[in-house]
Amino acid sequence: MLLAPLLVGCQPVAAVRSVPPVATASLMVFTSGGFNAAFDTLAAAYSRGTGTRIAVAHGPSMGETPNAIPARLARHEPADVVILARSGLDRLVAEGSVVRGTEVDLGLSRIAVAVREGARIPDIATPDAVRAALLRAKSVAWSDSASGVFIQSTLLDRLGVADQVRPKAKMIPATPVGEIVARGDAEIGFQQLSELKPVKGIRIVGLLPESLQKVTAFSGGVVAYSRHPAGARALLSYLSSPKADAAIRASGLEPARRKASR
């Protein structure tokens, strides 16, 4: 398991039931790719302000890989907070792995398109242009998490290209899609903007047109078997406060002030 202790801080603001700062020695957080960049920045700030040590393990919101967040919780790996796609969080709440009532939306994510640096830039300005780009590409990649599931199960059918595109496409587990594109293993890749932004060697073409978009909320909750539930709530309060907005925007997300489509 990849553990990366981070030192973090700032003063939490009312969000998760107005939880005040809590002096907690340490917290363990599982976070999925879409919120990784924002969390690394915010965790460091929170630790500086509170003295709380934060360890983080990264994993997908869903899927069959051993490091997927649901699989980690099923093994009862030590954890206090989880941050993942809202649909995945809702399933964890329903099965009792996350405390009901602690859920809070943190950032809203949109799907973007990327190609290898130096490659031809496809037109994706309209649904027809996206359809043409998919048909023209020799290979396509998307993730096995929220954005990729939407593309494979909904978007291709909506564009009428499922039969032509699925045979030349790869659903990528665990690895960022941008890395697959940067290596030249896929000509065009689709993933949340916040997950593509940190990858070197790619060109982000832009966001999918609004009529083809799925806006996903990345959301947090307190793990049911957390040993530090008060500290976990305080961290979520900070992450959902206005003081977190700048880091969330810089990562390619929008701060969540309302529920997004799940």
From TrEMBL:
Signal peptide: none annotated. GO terms for molecular function: molybdate ion binding. It holds the Pfam family SBP_bac_11. InterPro entries: ModA/WtpA (IPR050682). One of its GO terms (biological process) is molybdate ion transport. This is ABC transporter substrate-binding protein. It comes from Sphingomonas panacis. The lineage of its organism: Bacteria, Pseudomonadati, Pseudomonadota, Alphaproteobacteria, Sphingomonadales.
